[in-house]
Amino acid sequence: MVYAPQNPLIVQSDRSLLLEVDNPLYGAARDDLALFAELEKSPEHIHTYRITPLSLWNAASAGVGASEVLGALERYSKFDLPGNVLTDIKDYISRFGRVKLTKGGAGELLLTSEDPMLIAEIARNKRVQPTVLGQPDRNTLRVDPGMRGHIKQALVLFGYPAEDLAGYTHGDSLTVSLRKKTSSNNARFALRPYQMNAVGSFWAGGTVHGGSGVVVLPCGAGKTLVGMGAMSQARTHTLILAPSTIAVRQWISEILDKTTLTTDEVGEYSGEKKEIKPVTVTTYQILTYRPSVSTVNADTGEIGEFPHFDLFTKHNWGLIIYDEVHLLPAPVFRVTAEIQARRRLGLTATLVREDGRETDVFSLIGPKKYDVPWKELEKQGWIATAECTEIRMPLTPEERMEYTLVDDNRVKYRIAAENPLKMDVTEALLERHHTDSVLVIGQYIEQLKTIAQRFNAPLVTGKTPNAERDRLYADFRTGNLKVLVVSKVANFAIDLPDANVAIQVSGTFGSRQEEAQRLGRILRPKKDGSIANFYTLVTHDTKDQDFSTNRQLFLTEQGYGYNIVDAATVVPDLPVRLAAMLADFEEKKLSDDFSMERLIEKARSRGKVGTEEESGDSKPKSSRKRKAEKESADELASTGMVERDIAAGAEDRQQERRRGRPPKQKQGREHLRLVK
After folding, report:
1. 193-372 adopts what CATH topology?
2. Which CATH code is given to the segment(s) 379-579?
3. CA dihedral 620, 625, 627, 633 (to 10 degrees)
4. C-alpha distances in angstroms, 142 versus 110, 339, 355, 580?
5. Is residue 674 a contact partner of residue 634, using CB atoms and an 8 Å limit?
6. Residues 360-378 pLDDT 10s
7. Where are the domain boundaries for CATH 3.40.50.300 in the chain?
8. Whole-prediction pTM
9. Distance (Å, rounded) from C-alpha 369 to C-alpha 356?
10. pLDDT tens digit string along 227-256?
């Protein structure tokens, strides 16, 4: 057995990879592993990655072969590679493209392979069998073209993802190109080199080898410009899906500023407007709106129909762009399965989905076409250098007692997340950064209201009218407003390039994607070249700390390290104040007014008021839905990986509110979902 102690990597037979952080080769190894492995854990000294079929298929679709994967592992491994890992990597990568979807001479959809036994096995697969219309020869199946997406989903589950070479419908033609100077201020404009590479990887010269897939770029790196670059190549009517009305309007503004399209050619389809033009920008929320309870599926609990789904089919689109594709709701996956003849571009900062549906993105939107490490763009100066700091503090004595007395893990997390000591730390940070442009970001509305009142700062939530948001964002951009408190609606698509400090007081459980998006709010390069600061405030020895560790996984994979400090370094008199609080609480417990029952009821009430929800819908949840959420929350302790649906854009739901009886438990769990 070869032993190379200077190397940082241990490859294990279960396809897990252990990477030493304190090793000179760590950075190079991390960048190579990111091409074909997924980060699972990132404590201080050893990071754990795992090689999965999907990670290898994404690598294969991007042109990374088995020899490159094995070469990287051998280059950094301390020991010989396990034999089964060698075999598995070769096998899984070879599976991508062994089955192909092509178009026959008469326009029929064909499923082909050079392996006739594989075709015979696929023909008998229970998920594929209903789509088979015939078998012209032993290497070919004729399949239902209307089931193209469903076939690809089935083949991913079968373990042989299809390479889709069946081509696309061009859609109605549209004359569009990128400007050389912006229309707003006549400034010179051109795509950056990595943006041009991303467009080229997606478009692939207009051949069947391109036209569907996902481009992964950091927040602030100009994913919108990549979308416009794809539009200039496709030159066809385009439907763009965005996470919020604010994002819709930013897309429209950028398109009008940097392309040759006019206002007559670009439309908004939202809760406020219903314009259908050659380029139409809409939200996921409006597409998944259902107005009626006239029909309820007894098996799934789904309510009514989706009246806006015909937007996908009633116009001859040639390109569909999915902004923040990792937020794609389940109903949009279903309709996307029906429109596989349209070119599809997904844009995201991370392919991480907390619901585990990465395979649906792979099969229905397309494989990863382009990815660039965040730190690489930082080195090139395209995004700001950022320092991440986790500030840990204890609970106050009374909150610690509340935390101990409740069993509901959701309530435990909320008690820890709303730790009142976070106010003092926030105050100290605001004093430290009094000349900077600061975003205070959180999950719980009552907590954010308290912060806004204490520091006399405006608050933006899902209920804030769009006009008011625009005014506040404009004041922040011009420097007239130095501190802005924002809820999770600011996770996506707010253009605040001068924001250079973010203070995260609470988050959506263990959401890795949310952590990445929130850091992204401050990653636009600064005019003075200054460093951005991202602070996350965490209550130690609680669920808050557990979830914080999981939240940081994706950013750790991208090369960001968190400097962990004690709150006493920020608020020097905190230990003295905590001692006084403890003495006061001990004295309070001895008084006649103290009641343990009242303390328990106070703790339990945390889960009943001032929730983190942003829909603006005051209608109470059904007992069935509350039960489903509670059951999911009770599983938090054993998993540490729970995610609420954090799609922003609740203003669309305010415009067209979803009414009716909540569905069965299955749908209730969409709001608080356990990630396996």
Report:
1. Rossmann fold (3.40.50)
2. 3.40.50.300
3. -100
4. 5, 18, 33, 77
5. no
6. 888 888 898 988 877 788 8
7. 193-372, 379-579
8. 0.76
9. 20
10. 999 999 999 999 999 988 888 999 999 999
